[in-house]
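Late entry, evening session. Most of the bench is empty. Finally got around to the prediction I had been postponing all week. Sequence below, unchanged from the version circulated by S.P.
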Amino acid sequence: MPIAISEEHEALGQTVRRWLDTHCAPSVPRALLEAEDEELQSAWKDFASQGWLGIHVPEEWGGQGYGLFELAVILEETGRSLFPGPLLPTVVVSTAVAEAGDGAQARSLLPALVDGSVAAAVYLGSSHLDIVRRGDDGAIDVTGLLRPVLGVATASVVLVPARDGDDSVIWCLMDVGRSADRLQVQALVSLDPTRRVGSLEAEAVTVGVERQFPSLSMARLRQVALCLAAAEHAGGARWCLETASEYAKVRVQFGRPIGQFQAVKHKLANMLVTVEQITAVAWDAV
């Protein structure tokens, strides 16, 4: 069974699945796989128009007012189809803004993340940028190098940690394009070409207080990212199981479909058990 366990969640998963079958054929992620440079594809805006980027965001900030469970249902389906684009970092950042931002920050930042006009990147490593205080207005200058940053090649904004002299960490949401002269982005070789990463180098980039999230913690950010990534992987694992099972029905060897051979049956049964375990762990985490 998929992550969706209620009738409402099953209906949501089926709706997303039908949309992906129409708009995200295998040729769509393959185009990203074969591209030298990553760019946002048309499927990104079409996906955002369905409202799914903000299903977990309160309605007052442009979302649909549900939660992470509904978001996980969606990400399981997108993981099954290898939906291209910075979906995971964007929803992780919007979750962080909704949870750690004040009302003014949420009203200013979330609508663009929800409607897809702004794609986000996020850093989940152990390093940080360095802070230099500018004055009494709360603005800071950040300098340093971070790598790897998830989704940075297509991002308009990037959420990164910066450390003050007293070792306190302030999370900053920086505009990639607006600070192009002092914020350099470079693509890195990714182990998974469908989920690309890059480096980010900042040189005295000014971040106003309206883009700072001092109450956000790395522990919480990683918790959300891991749960949602687990949902994506559950979908990918289920695709592997379904594809292998269907192939075993039509692949003929020695005059019989290979699915009739005991050794193949055992492998498929083991795959089924593993996929159900993966799904259960992802559901429990969310």
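Two things to note before I forget:
The longest helix spans residues 218-250.
The mean pLDDT is 93.
Will write this up properly tomorrow.
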